[in-house]
């Protein structure tokens, strides 16, 4: 008697797992960058007194580019266990599609809010009051470094914000692309399972 034992090579699950590992450091960096926005020049006074832009309080890096992405990464990393418990890879890949949507939403939120914060500019002490001197000029101030000196306090707040927000923009864009790649991969794998499996048959008497 001859018996055929199908051995599946789960290439899609391995690919998703590698993307999960890649997302973790990106999410951590987003959280750190967002936290630093609360403490210009490492000082606590400004967050205590509420002298921060409203966009900083949106937690775009902590919630969007951070926690949401960590949830996505953990899901990608645990897809192998999900496949074992479900008995099919398509179930796990459907889960990866949903996790990818969470990641897309989180990274997209981080990118949009960071961009709006960059355009608006920081809240600072200027003309004997706390306000945003760049609010009505849009992103033009980014190309006029001479205007950055308008902010008396916190010192170098424009450089601080631009640097951290640029980091958030870059990281969230990479996160978005990674999640988008896995979304497409998971969708194709869930719909076209035979395309993802390499069948190897072992003959035994």
From TrEMBL:
| GO cellular component terms, A-Z | membrane
Family stated for the protein in its record: Belongs to the L6 tetraspanin family.
Q: Where are the transmembrane segments?
A: 21-39, 54-77, 97-119, 167-192
UniProt-annotated location(s): Membrane
Q: By its UniProt entry, which InterPro entries does this protein fall under?
A: L6_membrane (IPR008661)
In terms of superkingdom, the source organism counts as: Eukaryota
Name the source organism. Hemibagrus guttatus
**Name assigned to this protein:** Transmembrane 4 L6 family member 1
Sorted UniProt keywords: Membrane, Transmembrane, Transmembrane helix
Q: How does it sit in the membrane?
A: Multi-pass membrane protein
């Amino acid at each position: 008697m001859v018996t055929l034992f199908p051995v599946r090579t789960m290439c899609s699950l391995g690919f998703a797992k590698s993307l999960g590992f890649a997302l973790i450091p990106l999410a951590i960096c987003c959280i750190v960058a967002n936290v630093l926005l609360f403490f210009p020049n490492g000082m606590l006074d400004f967050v205590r007194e509420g002298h921060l832009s409203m966009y900083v309080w949106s937690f775009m890096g902590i919630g969007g580019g951070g926690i949401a992405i960590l949830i996505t990464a953990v899901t990608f990393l645990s897809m192998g266990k999900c496949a074992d418990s479900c008995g099919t890879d398509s179930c796990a890949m459907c889960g990866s599609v949903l996790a990818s949507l969470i990641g897309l939403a989180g990274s997209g939120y981080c990118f949009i809010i960071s961009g709006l914060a960059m355009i608006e500019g920081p809240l600072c002490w200027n003309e004997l009051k706390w306000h945003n001197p760049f609010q009505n000029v849009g992103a033009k101030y980014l190309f006029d470094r001479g205007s950055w000196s308008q902010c008396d306090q916190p010192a170098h707040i424009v450089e601080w914000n631009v640097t951290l927000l640029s980091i958030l923009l870059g990281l969230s864009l990479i996160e978005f692309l990674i999640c988008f790649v896995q979304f497409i991969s998971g969708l194709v794998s869930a719909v076209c399972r035979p395309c993802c499996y390499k069948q190897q048959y072992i003959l035994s008497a």
